[in-house]
Amino acid sequence: MLVSGDNNGDPRIRSVGLQIYSNDPATGKPLADTGIIMNLFGATNPITLPISFIQAPITWIPATPFMLEPDTCYWAVLSVESGATVGESASFSLPTGAATAYGRTSSADAGVTWGTPDTGSNRKMLITGIPVSIVPDLSITAVERIGDDLRLSFTTVAGNNYALQSRADLASGDWVTVPGVSAAGTGSTVQFTLSNAFAQPQQFYRVKIVP
Question: What does the alpha-carbon distance between residue 74 and residue 91 come to, in Å, rounded to a whole number?
Answer without folding.
Answer: 19
